[in-house]
From TrEMBL:
<dbReference type="InterPro" id="IPR022801">
    <property type="entry name" value="Ribosomal_uS4"/>
</dbReference>
<dbReference type="InterPro" id="IPR036986">
    <property type="entry name" value="S4_RNA-bd_sf"/>
</dbReference>
<comment type="similarity">
    <text>Belongs to the universal ribosomal protein uS4 family.</text>
</comment>
<keyword id="KW-0694">RNA-binding</keyword>
<keyword id="KW-0687">Ribonucleoprotein</keyword>
<comment type="function">
    <text>One of the primary rRNA binding proteins, it binds directly to 16S rRNA where it nucleates assembly of the body of the 30S subunit.</text>
</comment>
<dbReference type="GO" id="GO:0006412">
    <property type="term" value="P:translation"/>
</dbReference>
<comment type="subunit">
    <text>Part of the 30S ribosomal subunit. Contacts protein S5. The interaction surface between S4 and S5 is involved in control of translational fidelity.</text>
</comment>
<dbReference type="InterPro" id="IPR001912">
    <property type="entry name" value="Ribosomal_uS4_N"/>
</dbReference>
<dbReference type="Pfam" id="PF00163">
    <property type="entry name" value="Ribosomal_S4"/>
</dbReference>
<dbReference type="GO" id="GO:0042274">
    <property type="term" value="P:ribosomal small subunit biogenesis"/>
</dbReference>
<protein>
    <recommendedName>
        <fullName>Small ribosomal subunit protein uS4</fullName>
    </recommendedName>
</protein>
<keyword id="KW-0689">Ribosomal protein</keyword>
<dbReference type="InterPro" id="IPR002942">
    <property type="entry name" value="S4_RNA-bd"/>
</dbReference>
<dbReference type="Pfam" id="PF01479">
    <property type="entry name" value="S4"/>
</dbReference>
<dbReference type="GO" id="GO:0015935">
    <property type="term" value="C:small ribosomal subunit"/>
</dbReference>
<dbReference type="InterPro" id="IPR018079">
    <property type="entry name" value="Ribosomal_uS4_CS"/>
</dbReference>
Length: 204
């Protein structure tokens, strides 16, 4: 499946937000858009459409989702009862690759996606290699018993041991197993976007 493989630091600088954890220091050093006109680019007044589109793109790149897939998430969120924007964020947060990232099984969403793709992750005892798999409260996510899986996860957990765990997940680092305790609320999710603008963009 196609995915974005371009420069991450430039994307973070374009949107003014550290979309990928590894780009935070770059954004601190150069907090302006890339390119020769980067310092002056922020002075231009953006249209409402441009702002809403930027919010959607930030969320898309952050979770590593393509446009067609992102629209499917929006349509699913819009069909459910509740606040569409919040449901959209919940659908993205409960992707298996993102949950593995939150549990510390990957030091980035891309790394967590690769771990899932390569079959290193079990959900309720069954091997799942689909990064977009939707987890539910009560699901148990565990690293497989193969030596290669254990070694890879151990390296990743060493890199992420200082990263705080979100409240809606619990993890046993010894057994490399995590549990989804509940559906994340809006306050549990990184507030880097205004999801209401995304809903309005798709509602036009």
């Amino acid at each position: 499946m196609a995915r974005y493989t371009g420069p991450r630091a430039k994307l973070s600088r374009r949107f003014g937000v550290a979309l990928f954890g590894s780009t935070a220091k770059t954004l601190e050093r150069r907090p302006f858009p890339p390119g020769q006109h980067g310092l002056r680019a922020g002075r231009k007044k953006k249209s409402d459409y441009s702002i809403a589109l930027g919010e959607k793109q930030k969320l898309r790149f952050m979770y590593g989702v393509l446009e067609k897939q992102f629209r499917s998430y929006y349509e699913e969120a819009a069909s459910r009862r509740g606040v569409t924007g919040e449901i959209l964020l919940q659908l993205l947060e409960t992707r298996l690759d993102n949950v593995c990232f939150r549990l510390g099984f990957g030091n980035s969403r891309a790394a967590a996606r690769q771990i899932v793709n390569h079959g290193h992750v079990l959900v309720n005892g069954q091997r799942v290699d689909i990064p977009s798999y939707q987890v539910k409260p009560g699901d148990k996510i565990k690293i497989g018993g193969k030596a290669s899986s254990q070694q890879l996860a151990l390296r990743m957990m060493d890199l992420t041991q200082s990263v705080p765990l979100v409240d809606w997940l619990t993890v046993d680092r010894e057994s490399m197993e995590g549990t989804v305790e509940r559906v994340p609320e809006r306050s549990d999710i990184d507030p880097i976007v205004n999801e209401q603008l995304i809903v309005e963009l798709y509602s036009r």
